[in-house]
């Protein structure tokens, strides 16, 4: 089934009750069905998933019970990292907006980090970082929170905060950069800042390993980008910074790809995106 299905963002680890007629929720949009052969059994708590019933057609997520045809698969276009029940709220999908905001701002800065056409001044990025990649992306994260999507809220709000922080560091009025009298100290401090985001992004990489190839690739390449940029500041190494810019450009296009996946459908586009599901390794079935 094409990855561009139109159901809104799915909730993650929801504790809400779901009505029995979920097949017609969200203004009549179809819910992408989870393959009937899938089974996983993790440890405990709300993340525990087991199956029951004839042909394992009933799935238990924590304390909640759903039929397989009521559940939503991982979908990069809505920032849903894995099997989950649909949201009870009837809002639009803020994922494409947040992903587009992140993509454009990342593309601008990465082109400069890669020294494309010899440009090295980052001034043009500040406006996009504060308003599009920052404020708008932060808003989409809050909308994801209203849709009960923990992953989407965490990712979009956090990277919105990253871009606003980047803008503040580079705006003289805040006095952050000017507080460092030694230029090398500023480079090291910036390296620490980027290293923290490398660690945070690696956490997101681990939580997308059961999703789709496009979704996982976004955070994998973003983590490499942060790692190279942090090394570029700490070493220091202009080659690492430039390599980080190249990986950042790749990351931006993957983010646009996921945004398009959540936006395009057979009703509005001739070209749609088909999901490539990553393999999910099954745990041993309990007696």
From TrEMBL:
InterPro entries: AceTr, Gpr1/Fun34/SatP-like. It comes from the Eukaryota. Signal peptide: none annotated. It is found in: Membrane. Belongs to the acetate uptake transporter (AceTr) (TC 2.A.96) family. NCBIfam families: AceTr_1. Keywords: Membrane, Transmembrane, Transmembrane helix. It holds the Pfam family Gpr1_Fun34_YaaH. One of its GO terms (molecular function) is acetate transmembrane transporter activity. The keyword Transmembrane applies. Its main location: membrane. The keyword Transmembrane helix applies. This is Ammonia transport outward protein 2. The chain crosses the membrane at residues 124-143, 155-176, 188-207, 213-231, 243-260. One of its GO terms (cellular component) is plasma membrane. It is a multi-pass membrane protein.
